[in-house]
C-alpha cells in the first residue's frame, strides 16, 4: 500500500482504540511535566500506531507526543495520538488523531481523524485534499474565496493562550477587523479553513506533532500556514493558517508591536 493508504490504516486503528475509551468511567488520566493531561487512551493509540509502523515501514523514523522519538531516517511519521485530550477526557467530541509523513524535510501526506464527530480529512502532495462527511460522502476541499478581512471568520482558540503568549492586543485588533470570531479550537479550526467554512485560524504553544498533519491538508486545499515569523520550522510554536488571500493582511496585524 502507498503511504497515504497506510496513514488511513493507522487512522482506522487509532479510531478503534480512542472510541472504545471515550467517556469510559475507568479512563486513567495523568498530568505531564508541562501540566497538560494525558490519558491511557493517548498512550494506547500511539503504541498501536508505532507497532503498525514497525510492521509496515520498519526503516522509517517515528516522532510522537507520548513516547521517545525512534529511528534516524529521511522519512518520519509524526503522530499526535489524541489532539484535544482536554476535550476527550471531559466528553467533548472535538478531538482527533493526527498522522503525518515527512520525507526529506517536506510534509507530503497526512490524515486527521475525528471519530466522535464522524469526520476525517486527508491529503497527499499534488493529489488534493479531501474529507469524509458524517453521511460517508467524500468531497474535495477548497479554501474560501473571501479576500477582505471584513467578510472573514477568525478562530483563535482561547483568550488566555493569547494573553500568555503576549499577543492579546494583536488578537483584539484582528478581531475587530473581521466579520466574526469563534474559538473552535485544536485541529478543527484548521480543518474549517481547509473546507472554506472559515478563513483564519491561529494558535500558540504548539509542538511539531500538533502542526504536521495540518500542513498537507491546508496547502492542498489552497490555503497557507506559517509561523508569525516566517516559514514553519521544527521548533515553530505559533502558527497562522488562512485561505491564502488573507494571509498577509492577518499577519501584518499579528506582527504589530503591542
Q: Which class best fits the helix and strand makeup?
A: alpha+beta
Cα(first) to Cα(last) distance is: 51 Å
The fraction of residues assigned to DSSP E strands is 25-35%
Give the averaged pLDDT, no decimals: 90
The CATH superfamily title of the largest domain: Fructose-1,6-Bisphosphatase, subunit A, domain 1
Question: How many structurally independent domains?
Answer: 2
Coarse shape = globular
Major β-sheet, in short? 7 strands, mixed
What is the name of the CATH topology of the largest domain? Fructose-1,6-Bisphosphatase, Chain A, domain 1
Number of helices: 9
The helix/strand order is HEEHEEHEEEEEEHHEHEHHEEH
CATH architecture heading of the largest domain: 2-Layer Sandwich
What is the rounded Rg?
Answer: 18 Å
CATH top level class name of the largest domain? Alpha Beta
Number of strands: 14
Regions with little confidence, pLDDT below 50 for 5+ residues: none
Side by side, the strands of the main sheet go: 3-4-5-6-7-8-9
How much helical structure, as a percent, in the residues? 25-40%
Amino acid at each position: 500500500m502507498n503511504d497515504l493508504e497506510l496513514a488511513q490504516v493507522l487512522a482506522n486503528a487509532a479510531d478503534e482504540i480512542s472510541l472504545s475509551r471515550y467517556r469510559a468511567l475507568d479512563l486513567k488520566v495523568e498530568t505531564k511535566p508541562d501540566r497538560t493531561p494525558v490519558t491511557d487512551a493517548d498512550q494506547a493509540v500511539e503504541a498501536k500506531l508505532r507497532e503498525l509502523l514497525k510492521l509496515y515501514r520498519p526503516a522509517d523514523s517515528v516522532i510522537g507526543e507520548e513516547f521517545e522519538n525512534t529511528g534516524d531516517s529521511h522519512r518520519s511519521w509524526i503522530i499526535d495520538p489524541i489532539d484535544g485530550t482536554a476535550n476527550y477526557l471531559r466528553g467533548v467530541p472535538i478531538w482527533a488523531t493526527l498522522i503525518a509523513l515527512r520525507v526529506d524535510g517536506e510534509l507530503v501526506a497526512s490524515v486527521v481523524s475525528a471519530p466522535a464527530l464522524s469526520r476525517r480529512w486527508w491529503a497527499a502532495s499534488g493529489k488534493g485534499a479531501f474529507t469524509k462527511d458524517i453521511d460517508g460522502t467524500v468531497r474535495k476541499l477548497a479554501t474560501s474565496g473571501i479576500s477582505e478581512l471584513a467578510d472573514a471568520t477568525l478562530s483563535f482558540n482561547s483568550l488566555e493562550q493569547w494573553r500568555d503568549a503576549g499577543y492579546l492586543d494583536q488578537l483584539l485588533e484582528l478581531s475587530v477587523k473581521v466579520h466574526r470570531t469563534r474559538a473552535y479550537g485544536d485541529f478543527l479550526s484548521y480543518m474549517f479553513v481547509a473546507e472554506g467554512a472559515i478563513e483564519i485560524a491561529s494558535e500558540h504553544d504548539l509542538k511539531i506533532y500538533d502542526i504536521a498533519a495540518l500542513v498537507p491538508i491546508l496547502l492542498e486545499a489552497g490555503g497557507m500556514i506559517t509561523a508569525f515569523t516566517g516559514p514553519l520550522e521544527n521548533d515553530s510554536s505559533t502558527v497562522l493558517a488562512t485561505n491564502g488571500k488573507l494571509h498577509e493582511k492577518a499577519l501584518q496585524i499579528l506582527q504589530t508591536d503591542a
